[in-house]
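ZP: hey, is the NDP complex queued? I don't see it on the tracker
AM: it wasn't, my bad. submitting now with these inputs:
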Amino acid sequence: MPKPSSVTVLGLGPMGRALAGAFLDAGLRTTVWNRTPGRDLDLKERGAISAASAADAVAASPLTVVCVVNYDAADTFLRTEPVTDALKGRTVVNFSSDSPDRARRAADWAAEHGIRYLDGAIMTPITTIGTPHAVFLHSGPEDLYAEHRPALDALGGTHTHLGADSGRAAAYDIALLDIFWTATAGYVHALALARAEGITARELAPFAQGIGAILPPLFAEWADDIDEGTYSGEGNPLTSSVSSMAHIVHTAEAHGIDSAVLRAAEGQARRAVGLGHGTDGITRLTELLGRR
Ligand code: NDP
């Protein structure tokens, strides 16, 4: 593969700036543009070229990386005539987060306009970009991914191509963020409950980390259990889980703490018990949640 020489970054929020910075550090000629001017001052000092318009930025490089808040935001500049025209025959890698459906529609739009399109998702915070700790997911045409892999490698970390379906990276992203936000909702609820019981966040944190550490081995163990449809409740049947959840709801609500999130989870588990799955594990819900 020839060494990539230039790249354009559209979108200079915290993540777009981190991506552009990594490209600069790797020695690529980096052209940048952002809707609101002035976000590129540090990057310019580091050698970035500031384009006057998105179309000018796109015209500067064979590869354009897009990183804005969502696809509606990306469409405000990508789907303008000068930018669409400038992108013809060039490649877009869209790292903006959104739904799998939006990613597939973006790929269809790109194909209709002769634009080569890869979708991507960034699974780690800005501090990891350019380091071995960054994690990137990609989907779309494999040959296009292979062609631009050397430039993407400038961003550091690991890159995984998940297949030709353009929505697949976003599907992984959404599923993984589901874990993150549901866990975060659980943790802030736990902190509210702890506070009501006179326990500070600092006091709880070391033990919370211990609870968090239980999860990764369970993810691996449950993968086989779910894919094989066994939903084993050995060691922790749903009848026991609902009882544990009820204690938390009871204690939190006695302190006047809103427990709607855990109540919903308890309700789902109780429904599974009611359907005769009390001896199964909580993994049974993966099959029941989508069933009316
Ligand atoms: P934001 O998600 O806040 O995105 C900011 C960028 O979006 C800016 O360039 C902003 O432009 C642009 N933008 C917002 N609305 C519009 C609009 N209507 N039209 C044009 N541009 C718009 O910050 P991040 O940079 O952190 O995130 C970018 C993407 O990266 C998001 O999809 C995010 O989910 C993803 N990501 C971020 C991570 C992080 O740690 N920050 C981690 C993993 C993924 P302006 O400056 O003009 O407002």
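AM: back. The CA atoms of residues 43 and 262 lie 45 Å apart.
ZP: great, adding it to the tracker
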